[in-house]
Design brief:
By secondary structure, this protein is an alpha/beta fold. The chain has two domains: about 45 residues, no CATH class; about 200 residues, Rossmann fold. The protein is about 35% helix and about 15% strand. The chain is built from ten helices and seven strands. The chain has a five-stranded parallel β-sheet with strand order 1-7-6-2-3. A two-stranded antiparallel sheet has the order 4-5. Strand 6, helix 10 and strand 7 form a beta-alpha-beta unit. The longest helix has 19 residues. The site of zinc ion has 8 residues, from helix 2.
């Protein structure tokens, strides 16, 4: 019997993957249970994932409990229209979504950025095209030194790589180290991040007239992306959209560390 070269390669690849599976079994991204597919969740984690599903507010991406038609705004978006055009998120900041955010940020599980970015592309597909610029919400340099990486930049880089959108990691800078937003009043939160961001003057031409998609891991109060949007629009961006992995329920208490 003759086995051609290509077939032989297939057989050896299959044997190799069997061997690799035996040595390195695939694990759930959240709880370490064995799973059948690479970069996936086990069934209980999948069921517990608080995905945000359509129909949702055209501006804030928050789900409606019933379908009110395409392009509808939530009462919150009508009462306080955001500076950015559209916000999209994968899930509420709870359960496995919270676990993934914390693991990426504080346990330095940077391999989570690729599957999290894939989910973000599914939720925010309408924001992404080859013409837009993806900008991570920046960390202050002192925070970057201590954490050694910016999780928002890891997500933005992955989304750019998978979607073909432009990636500008240093166009927007954080010049002020802000206090954590948790526990501050709405007024204090805005004051805390006011003038915290600046556009790199050497990148103004790149920004002029472009549609920007701000990328972050979790959106808590919205004051950070509002400050970023104000800065980018005044520096010449045509519009700003926001794409984040998780969204804190504004009515829920939160215990997370935000950027600073
Ligand atoms: Zn699991």
């Amino acid at each position: 019997m003759v086995i051609c070269g290509e077939r032989l390669l297939d057989v050896s690849k299959y044997a190799g993957s069997l061997l690799l599976d035996g040595l390195l079994p695939r694990r759930c991204l959240c709880c370490d249970a064995r799973v059948a597919f690479e970069a996936g969740l086990c069934a209980p984690c999948w069921r517990a994932m608080p995905f945000l599903e359509r129909p949702w507010c055209q501006r804030l991406g928050t789900p409606f409990s019933y379908d009110v038609g395409e392009g509808a705004w939530s009462p919150r978006a009508i009462a306080e229209p955001p500076l950015f055009d559209r916000l999209r998120a994968v899930a509420h900041y709870d359960g496995p979504a919270r676990q993934l955010v914390l693991s990426l940020k504080f346990s330095r599980r940077r391999e989570l950025a690729a599957p999290m970015a894939a989910w973000m592309m599914r939720s925010g597909g309408e924001l992404l095209d080859a013409e837009c610029l993806l900008l991570p919400v920046p960390l202050h340099w002192t925070r970057l030194v201590s954490r050694r990486f910016n999780q928002a930049a890891d997500l933005a880089r992955e989304i750019a790589g998978q979607s073909g959108a432009g990636y500008e990691p240093v166009l927007l800078k954080r010049r002020k180290r802000t206090r954590q937003q948790v526990g501050l009043t709405a007024k204090d939160r805005l004051r805390n991040v006011r003038a915290a961001f600046v556009v790199d003057r050497t990148r103004l031409e790149t920004l002029a007239g472009r549609r920007v998609v701000l990328v972050d891991d979790v959106l808590t109060t919205g004051s950070t992306v509002t400050a970023c949007s104000r800065c980018l629009l005044s520096a010449g961006a045509a519009s700003v959209d926001v794409l984040t992995f998780a969204l804190v329920d504004p009515n829920a208490s939160d215990d997370i560390a935000v950027h600073g």
